[in-house]
Q: What sequence folds into this?
């Protein structure tokens, strides 16, 4: 039995961590949940992730939740995949910044998409404002090709997934920097493999 088990629903936010597992190249198992059937809210799964969300990753006796945490964990746990920046490397700081920026990006996008009756004051929001968030990210992708220059790392997977999904649903502007970046993500063999698997899983009954 594989030491790595991903509690997964296809398609969902856990598709990002499915892609990450394909990138690291280690054997893994998928434990499928049906979000429509409410599997994520059942007691056996709440014992794994009390938030009642996917993804969750089991690695031996360790359970990790939250997509960014899972990607960071896997990048550090399996460094031969080259997706992390190790402690002591001066690029570790920017690497961590972009890992955590994924949460900033999602908050900015979701707050804009699900509009409030009254916009909150800029200083109250952890991301400041939507336009600044978009501009900062676009600037970081110039000249590219990745957030840390010529090296693809775990933050690219997280940010790339976010941009890919939100541009598909017209939630953010299709800026050239974003389109080019997502195009590079789409060319990665690991993403092609995980996407093809998710498409098949989405057709199959869960249970």
A:
């Amino acid at each position: 039995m594989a030491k790595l088990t991903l509690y997964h629903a296809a398609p969902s936010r856990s598709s990002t961590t499915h892609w990450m597992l394909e990138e690291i190249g280690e054997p893994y198992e998928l434990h499928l949940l049906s979000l429509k059937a409410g599997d994520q809210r059942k007691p056996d799964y709440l014992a794994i992730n009390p938030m009642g969300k996917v993804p969750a990753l089991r690695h031996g006796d360790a359970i990790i939740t939250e997509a960014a945490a899972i990607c960071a964990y896997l990048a550090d746990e399996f460094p031969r995949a080259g997706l992390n920046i190790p402690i002591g490397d001066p690029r570790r700081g920017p690497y961590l910044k972009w890992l955590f920026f994924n949460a900033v990006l999602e908050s900015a996008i979701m707050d804009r998409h699900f509009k409030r009756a009254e916009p909150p004051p800029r200083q109250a929001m952890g991301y400041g404002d939507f336009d600044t968030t978009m501009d900062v990210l676009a600037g970081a992708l110039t000249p590219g090709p990745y957030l840390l220059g010529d090296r693809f790392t775990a933050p690219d997977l997280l940010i790339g997934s976010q941009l890919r999904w939100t541009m598909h649903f017209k939630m953010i502007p299709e800026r050239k920097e974003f389109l080019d970046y997502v195009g590079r993500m789409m060319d990665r063999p690991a993403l092609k493999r995980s996407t093809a698997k998710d498409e098949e899983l989405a057709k199959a009954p869960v249970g």
